[in-house]
Amino acid sequence: MKFFRGKRDKDAPVSPDAARTVRSGTDEHSDGAQPSHRLTVDLARAESLATMLAHSRAAQFVEVADLLAGMYIYEWERLSKFWDDRDEIETLLQKICSISPQRWNHWIEHYDQQRQKDEKGRRSLKDAQPEGEALPRSRDLQKILAQAAGIAPFRDDVDGRKIPVLTSECVLLCIARNPESELSSKLRDTALDLTALERSARDPRRAPQR
What we know:
10% strand; Double Clp-N motif; alpha/beta; 5-stranded mixed beta sheet
C-alpha cells in the first residue's frame, strides 16, 4: 500500500460544529504572520502534554516522541484501537519518554477525565490553548506536521484562505510512515494497524472529533 497514493479531497470542509473544535497553528519560521494549519482541540491538548514531557527532560525542543506520547496518553481510548497489543506500545512509549509505569497510568487517568470534562462542557477555542511555557518544535516534528498538513482531508476558512486541519490520526500516520526515523521503525514493529489508521486519517466523511 502506497502512502501518498490516490486523489484526496483537499477542500473537504469542516462542519460548523467541528470548526469550533480547532485552533490555529503556524509554521516555526512563519513569524506567526498567517496560520499555516489548525489543530483539533484534542491534538492541541496532546501538544500541551508533549511540551510538559519535554520540560520534564529539560529539553530545548518538543520532539516527535513527545508528541506521540502526548497523543497516546490524552487520546488513548481513540488511538489505542489501532494496536492489538496495547501493552507493547505503552512499554515502548514509556521507555522512549522515560516515564515510569505509575506516572504513565496517572497521566492516562488524569487526561481521560479532562477529555470527558471537555466533551461535556464543550470548551471554547481559547480554552484549548496549550498550557505552560511554550517550547519550539524540533525540525523532525516540523516535518511531520508539514506532511500531516499535506494529507489532511479537512480544510477550514481563515481570512479567505483554506488551511488544513490536522487530526491526531493524520499525525500518527505520518510518524509511522517516516522511512528515515528509528522511532517510526519501532512504532511499526508494535503491530500498528496501518491500514485501519490510514483509512481513519484520510476519510473525508469523518469530521474532526473533540
